[in-house]
Amino acid sequence: MFGLAKSRRLRGALAGTVGVGLVLSVAACGGSSDSDDDSDTATQSIDCSQFSSYGDLKGKTVSVYTGIVTPEDKAYKDSYKPFEDCTGVKISYEGDKSFETQILVRAKAGNPPDLAIVPQPGLLKQLVATGKAVEAPAEVSANVDKFWSKDWKAYGTVDGKFYAAPSGASVKSLVWYSPSEFKDAGYQVPTTLADLKTLTDKMVADKKKPWCVGISSGEATGWPLTDWMEDFMLRMSGPETYDKWVKHEIPFNGPESTAALDAVGGYVKNPAYVNGGLGDVKSIATTTFQDAGLPILDGTCSLHRMASFYAANFPKDTKVAEDGDVFAFYLPGQDATTKPVLGGGEFNLAFADRPEVKAFQTYLSTDTWANIKAGASQGWISANKGLDINKVSNPIDKLSAELLQNPSTVFRFDGSDQMPAAIGSNVIFKQLTSWVTGQDTKTTVDNVENAWPK
Amino acid sequence: MTTSAPPATPLPVPVGESTASFAKRKLTSPWASLAAVVIAILWTLPTFGLLVSSFRPERAIKTTGWWTFFSNPTLTMDNYKAVLDADEGAGLGAYFVNSLVITIPSVLIPLTLATIAAYAFAWIKFPGRNILFLVIFALQIVPLQVTLIPLLTLYVDAGLANTFWTIWLSHSIFGLPLAIYLLHNFMREIPSSLLEAARVDGAGHVAIFFRVLLPLLRPALAAFGIFQFLWVWNDLLVALTFAGGGDKVAPITVALANLSGTRGTAWHLLSAGAFVSILVPVTIFLLLQRYFVRGLLAGGVKG
Q1: Predicted confidence (pLDDT) per residue in A231-276, tens digit
Q2: Domain check: are A364 and A397 in the same one?
Q3: Are residues A297 and A446 located together in one domain of the fold?
């Protein structure tokens, strides 16, 4: 085949291909030099004295591996810059959407990154079980005691040893709505679960299909329903029972979870309530979760239960605010005084205990980092108590941060993320998908219970 | 029972028509042509839709189908800017170069080794040749997924992790069994009298290999080269597992997989990203397709 290079056509093709490659690489180089300029200006406004305790780490590199990719990764890199500029360390950031499978491969093969941002306590346990993870240094542990609640520290602890400090957090107990629609029709934001039902019925009386739901998400199809179920479990049976349910100390087909799933069914399987702007009950399974809330903008749907990160799904020119095109309210508890919040979050797990890794881990557990990160990003908050709510620019983030910091809030981590992966990210997804397309509640909970690893 | 075969009579050529135009008329059918055109259009339509989509604005991609472009044509380069811009966007440029750096050695290494090995298996007699060839052939059955973690462990122990070597070696390893098998079969088809004649003329193995076999094997080499090129360029699994270390070694397929964003909110960029990525394979395929077909169909002698 190499003799063919004599042919004029092939030579042309090679020239074309190489040419395109060169243009692209020049574009790449040009871009990176721009970013250097940005960092220079950033340095000038940073006070390096608060970083002096980390010492001089010039010439050292810390690698970070995470499932957070563009565009959300930019805020992470920006938030590392003050630390890099003041200590001289280089943080190499690698985002990969297949993080959750690849991190296990890398850890098992002995090629883990220095630091991994792990999105689930269940995965954290699996990673610690590989024997490659290292415990968090004492400084990090002290910071977590200072800035986070006990619940959060417990999620980063495996077998009594504290491994990972919490990073970001997201609030899942939110219902998206259109403030202008509420204003025009005279609807009130509900403060109890009973109110929510009344509001829904009122909307039905106004000839509307109030709720829009979508659960399609590739191989994870069904996950939004696990959040629905967890939210109702948490509200109807209380946080203690919820914890037992997650740890499988009470069966999955017990009366508590049957009641919770039936309550969810009262909304998502009620043909009068769904599926606003999208079709009938069956359309829930075929609508992607990314698209499911968009009918709110068209006025064909009024309510959409989805986490705070859903803000990024609305088109860029949408105003997400209490007086804007779309906003969210807290999915209320049984009564107005109890505030159970379902949420998720990430944890920084280290696989190396070199001084620069420890220093970086410590930096990430401070309120300094939480505030820099919140200032740099849209749609990101932390449960760090040192996070200054006034520095959070985005109204929906502000709402989430207020919920997390509210003393009467009872926070619980997403249950399916803590269950064994075979159940929490497989069987439940599939069973709830079958459930929403017609399978009855009893069969559904029985099937999950029977599949539980003995 | 005896039946006499009917005498082979040439088809009667109608008077007033040349043989060539008669042959053309007999060999083409308007219905077959129509079917071919319809299939070609159906086959190309999704790719065409992708191309149109890549130039449409974000809101339009997310709310309407690409065919609405014709009633409401708005063109934008924003998607391409977003995927190519290294600072604000995905910076596919660097990954594009990585892909080239990965693919070229990953084609050349197995091609070179396989040609030499195939020659040995085809024309050098040594003890255990057939068993060894059978073992190599059987290696194709092993799914590469089972080798991922052990192989990565070996690379880490050898200190190769996070370099291009892991990907080059892996693709060579995974490509070799098929390459040796294919090239061996091509070599076997070359009549042994040809090699004997060369031997009588005083040629050794090296001379036979370079001066007799290589020129004859050109279509086979081209065919396997294109195969391996497309396979490596489009590979995601091997790259995901072995190419640790961000934009230093990851190829464009990895960047493409990450393009839609952490929670899939930026999927409108995928069409533009896909077009940047298929630029090279399409060019290669269009230019070399006749070798591709010839290599698959022809035996070594006819090449």
Answers
A1: 999 999 999 999 999 999 999 999 999 999 999 999 999 999 999 8
A2: yes
A3: yes
Do the chains contact at A110 and B157, CB–CB below 8 Å? yes
Domain count, chain A: 2
pTM here? 0.79
The torsion angle over the Cα atoms of residues A14, A20, A23 and A25, rounded to 10 degrees, is: -90
Return the number of CB contacts < 8 Å for A and B: 142
CATH architecture, domain defined by B92-297: Orthogonal Bundle (1.10)
With CA atoms as reference, the chain B residue closest to A108 would be: B149
Cis? peptide before A71, omega within 30° of 0: yes
Residues from chain A that touch B87, judged by Cβ atoms under 8 A, are: 31-32, 34-35, 38
Q: How far apart are CA A319 and CA A331, in angstroms?
A: 21
Q: How far apart are CA B21 and CA B10, in angstroms?
A: 16
What is the nearest CA distance from A75 to chain B, expressed in angstroms? Answer: 11
CATH number assigned to the domain comprising residue A116: 3.40.190.10
Decide: B291 and B225 in contact? Cβ < 8 Å: no
Distance between CA atoms of A56 and A89, rounded to whole angstroms?
8
| Residue numbers of B between 143 and 162 with CB closer than 8 Å to A | 148-149, 152-153, 155-157, 161-162
Contact assignment for A25 to B96 by CB distance below 8 Å: yes
Range 218-237 of B in CB contact (< 8 A) with A: 218, 221-222, 225
Q: Do A18 and A165 fall into the same domain?
A: yes
Q: Nearest-5° angle of CA A417, CA A420, CA A423?
A: 90
The domain of A423 spans: 174-338+415-451
| CA nearest to B115, candidates B231, B210, B229 | B210
Which of A27, A65, A71 is opposite residue B86, by nearest beta carbon?
A27
What are the tens digits of pLDDT across the range A293-313?
Answer: 999 998 999 999 999 888 888
Q: Which of B155, B182, B224, B258 to mutate to test the interface with A (most CBs of A within 10 A)?
A: B258
| Interface pTM, i.e. ipTM | 0.74
